[in-house]
Amino acid sequence: MGRVAKQFDDDGHNGGLSKKIKATEITWIATNADRTLFEAIFNGEHVQLRLNDFPDEPIYTLFVGSNEIDIEEGPRIWHLQHND
């Protein structure tokens, strides 16, 4: 059975999760060849960040547990690292 995700917008209606993670300096590591999926550890939990088809979609979608959070603007304190 597939994972059931709760979809949230980047407007704080997710228990403050979006605000907390956006306020944390994170180095995201690319996990695929086309550099559209990144992963990191946040508060001891594995989290993923997907680059979307911007500007037609939000720039990122964040996956934390069963939560999906669309993010319109990435924080400057996030670092995307490519494995070259």
**Order of H and E elements:** EHEEEEEE
How would you characterize the largest beta sheet?
7 strands, mixed
Oligomeric description of these chains: single chain
**DSSP, total strands:** 7
- Indicate the proportion of strand residues: 35-45%
Overall geometric form: globular
Query: How many individual domains?
Result: 1
The low-confidence parts are: 1-5
Number of helices: 1
The amount of helix comes to: under 10%
Radius of gyration: 12 Å
Mean pLDDT level: 83
Major sheet strand order:
1-6-5-4-3-2-7
Overall SS class = mainly beta
Distance between the termini: 35 Å
Descriptive keywords:
1 helix; mainly beta; disordered N terminus; about 80 residues; about 5% helix
Descriptive report:
The chain contains 1 helix and 7 strands. The protein has one domain. It has 84 residues and is mostly beta strands. The N terminus is likely disordered. The chain is globular and about 35 Å long. 14% of the residues are buried. The chain has a 7-stranded mixed sheet with strand order 1-6-5-4-3-2-7.
Write the layout of secondary structure elements.
Layout: E1 6-8, H1 17-22, E2 26-30, E3 37-42, E4 45-51, E5 60-64, E6 67-71, E7 78-81
Parallel strand pairs: 1-6, 2-7
Antiparallel strand pairs: 2-3, 3-4, 4-5, 5-6
What is the structure about, briefly put?
The protein is mainly beta. The protein is 7% helix and 42% strand.
